[in-house]
Amino acid sequence: MPVTEQSGCRVDALSVPSGPLVPTPEQWRAEPDRFAEVFDAYHGEIYRYVASRLSIAQADDLAAETFLIAFRTRARFDGAATQVRAWLYGIATNLIRRHRRDEERKYRALARSEQTAWISDEEPADQVVSRVSAGRAQRRLAAALRSLKPRDRDVLLLSALGELSYAEVAEALGIPPGTVGSRLTRARRAVRSAFNEIDPTSDQGA
To answer: What is the pLDDT, as a whole number, of residue 149?
Structure first.
């Protein structure tokens, strides 16, 4: 696949994947009722993204608000069908920013938590070790995420939670792909330092 070099990072030169089969922007602008198909295609992942960053209770409201804003502003969307997903993640991220204190409070609570889920005396030792280790990793990750600058955290979590490509993150946040690369590199460096150079937010672990 052709790539370009941006700030020392490999960025796909091709357009982002098309994703689910949904009406084109031209179609749902001309036939507003068809925007319901966009909701059906993307609501689940937007909901999970918001819930992961905030809470399930807030995800109900903010995911719905994401699509309400998208519907109301659909006439101003001039991107291609492949950019709809990034557009929705961008709206959701802007809404999350209004609740930045809630997000940081969540990470603070997780980082300080010493509780481990109840463990049965009959549970195999290897499972006990695994669950305790997972709890420790969660606390370290929460502390690392809380330490990040908000703009770096947005890029990292759009990539890690939303699984957006560089091009999609750039589209979602309205920033150049090179800026995505530099922010993601900085964020991953901070997370790796909390995990002895292993990056739990990356599929490659580095």
So the answer is: 93
CA distance 116 to 127: 13
pTM (predicted TM-score): 0.75
| Whether 150 contacts 94, CB under 8 Å | no
Give the mean pLDDT of the chain: 79
Structure tokens at 115: 């509780």
Eight-state DSSP code of residue 54: S
Residue 188 contacts by C-beta under 8 Å, 6 or more apart in sequence? 156, 199, 201, 202
More confident residue, 112 or 188: 188
Of 5, 1, 39, 40, give the one whose Cα is nearest residue 17.
1
- Nearest residue to 139 via CA among 161, 163, 96, 106: 106
Q: How far apart are CA 193 and CA 199, in angstroms?
A: 8
